[in-house]
Amino acid sequence: MEPLSNRKKVLEQKPMNFWERLYLPAIFQGMGITFKHMFKKKETIFYPEVEREFSENWRGMHSLKRDEQGRERCTACGLCALSCPAEAITMIAAERQKGEEALYREEKYAAVYEINMLRCIFCGLCEEACPKEAIYLDGPIVPADYLRKDFIYGKDKLVEEPLKV
Amino acid sequence: MSISLFYFVAFLSIFFALLVIFAKNPVHSVLYLIVTFFTFTIHYILLNAQFLAIVNFIVYMGAIMVLFLFVLMLLNLNEGSIGSKSNLLKMIGVIGGMCLIITLVGSARVLNASEPLVLQTQDLGLVKNLGKVLFSKFLLPFELSSILLLSAMVGSVLLAKRDIKQV
Amino acid sequence: MELAFIIEKFIVVTVIFLISLTIAAYSTLAERKIAGYLQDRVGPNRAGPGGMFQPLADGLKMFFKEEIIPADSSKALFILGPSLALLTSLIGSAVIPWGQSIEIADRLVSLQIADVNVGILYIFGVVSLGVYGIMIGGWASNNKFSLMGAIRAASQSISYEIPMGLSIIALLMTTNTLSMKEIAEQQHGINWNIFYQPLGFLIFLVCSFAETNRTPFDLPECETELVGGYHTEYSGFKMGAFMFAEYLNMFLASAVMSTLYFGGYNYPGMDWVNGMAGPLFGPLIGMGVLLLKIFAFIFFFMWVRWTVPRFRYDQLMNLGWKVLIPLAIANIVITGIVITIYDKL
Questions:
Q1: With touching defined as 3+ CB pairs under 8 A, do chains C and A touch?
Q2: Cross-strand pairs, A136
Q3: Which of A110, A154, B8, B52 is deepest in the core (most CB within 10 A)?
Q4: Helix axis angle, C270-305 to C236-261, nearest 10°
Q5: Is A30 an 8 Å CB contact of chain C?
Q6: Domain of B31: which CATH number?
């Protein structure tokens, strides 16, 4: 059949000559290659001590942000929970009391904010839905654990450290 | 000490040889046969025939019995799969056993203790002496047996090889 | 048999036993380390400095794992299999001469457990028994993959014993003795057998790869086709026994090859060193040299494992019967001709 493009390359299989049929030279060549690898730079990254650099659009564990005065940004509007395709986010809203202005920026805040890390697919839609720029997926890899209940992350794990004065 | 050791090993040989017959499972039977051969090896060592001992060890235990085991494993014979024998077979078995007993009794009647055989040289079984004897005194039978083995090998290759014309 | 002799042998046996067990245990670590280094990784390094205690951790793990005996297996044989594999790989080192005799308190202590005058044949016999452990274990598991592995092991070991024996015959024609001790003594200095029997050594090397079930001949436990081969059903310490037996076999094969072809405890300039070190430490240095040779061989085993892919079954049989056996016979004939011509001159 006439080839449509000239990219086809017919591989010519020659019968092996004596040295090739001995296989020994090929084996020694291969062993030379593997031996050279003994002295190459090792690719291993010693994980818990050293962490691999993440790319800029990496999406890891969620964190609930604070503003420049150290107040929680989240206003418990529920848009993140609504946008979540895996329904991993739940929250209970509460009203800000007198004297709590230094803790919460808005008048309404999330008293309970839970993300089920077993459900979460790290799509980043909550990040996009948030009108207050309160949630970002900028954390590290979510660590493994033994029990299912330990994968439901509350505010104690999600909220950023308070500002150090 | 040597005599009591001999009787102990001889008892073991006969014991395991009986187990070979009485074991229900053919694979167990082969395993007992291997142990029996091992006791034979000890007998050879007691007779100071080191070469024979080790050859018995390698050839019988290490090669032939592996092949036996190999075939039996592939056959996958279980305890029940041999099946019951027909009456005719049982009759033949009884007649054969009777014949064996008559022969044994008849031969026991004319039995006298033979002269105890004393080896001229105690080290006859060592490799060096055995080799010298094999290649000088018994050269012809030795070579003949090798030709016999060669012909057996050629025969088996012929049997195993497919006839090219028929295909 | 005096008491001192028994004590002396007891100590030698214990020491050699401990050395072979330690080396086998650390071979598992070495295997993983070497595999790592050949693949630009670093291998296990968490248990102790540089992973030094990894074998201990592995052994402990093996002990605490649950032992599963399949319900439909024949239990006695299922236990006998790994025990036999371990036993046969341990008794082989009895005839290896580990060094010249050392002198302690005016007594010559031989560094060989038993100088059997059919030493090579003894090792050969032990190696041929080694396959029983695998066969019995594989059959007793009552599992088709185990059975396939066992059958492969049996046919492979029978096929490769023949060229192995033939290559040893050529060696025996040059050494004129079957005793391992005399063979080691003949290779004084750098007078090693490898220079007289290069082809024989090559055949022996390939066969010992096959006999120890190492890659490229690890068909009995080939994961891609047979799940785990003969030890599919094994768990816990019985599995560990099989693994340990494999490494012990590798150690034994390395020791035999170093003794038969690479001079054993001999090294160039040994007379001078012995004169300097005295009758106690001189032979011990020789033993160290033998261990170094053994380590080199073990490294070679692992290096090949991480380079050469596994053979196909028909390729294995072709190599054994159609290449190695004719080569070994040709080697015997050539050796015979050379010896005859040499004697005439």
A1: yes
A2: A63
A3: A110
A4: 130
A5: yes
A6: 1.20.120.1200
Please check whether residues B67 and B10 belong to one and the same domain.
Answer: yes
CATH 3.30.70.3270 applies to domain A63-158:
yes
Domain of residue C91, residue span = 68-344
**Interatomic CA distance for residues C300 and C304, integer angstroms:** 6
Contact list in A for residue C41 (CB cut-off 8 A) is 42-44
Q: Which residues of B are less than 8 Å from C141 in CB distance? A: none
Distance separating alpha carbons of residues C219 and C224, to the nearest angstrom: 10
B149 shares contact with chain C (CB less than 8 Å): no
Q: Is residue B66 part of a domain?
A: yes
Contacts of C303 in chain A (CB under 8 A): 31, 34-35
Which candidate from C37, C304, C308 shows the least CB-CB separation from A38? Answer: C37
Residues of C in contact with B61 (CB under 8 A): 125, 128-129
The structural domain count of chain C equals 1
Q: How many domains does chain B have?
A: 2
pLDDT for C116-164, tens place per residue?
Answer: 777 788 888 888 888 888 888 888 888 888 888 888 888 888 888 889 8
Structure confidence by residue, pLDDT tens digits, A58-112: 888 888 888 888 888 888 888 988 999 988 999 998 888 888 888 888 888 888 9
Query: C255-265, pLDDT tens digit by residue?
Result: 888 888 888 88
Domain membership of residue C6 (yes or no) is no
Q: Give the burial string for A110-144 (b: 16+ CB within 10 Å, else e).
A: beebbbbbeebebeebbbebbebebbbbebeebee
What ipTM did this prediction achieve? Answer: 0.78
Point out the residue among C118, C136, C155 whose CB comes nearest to the CB of B54: C118
Flag whether C33 is in a domain: no
Query: What residues make up the domain containing B8?
Result: 1-79
The rounded Cα A123 to chain-centroid distance in angstroms is: 10
pTM of the full structure? 0.80
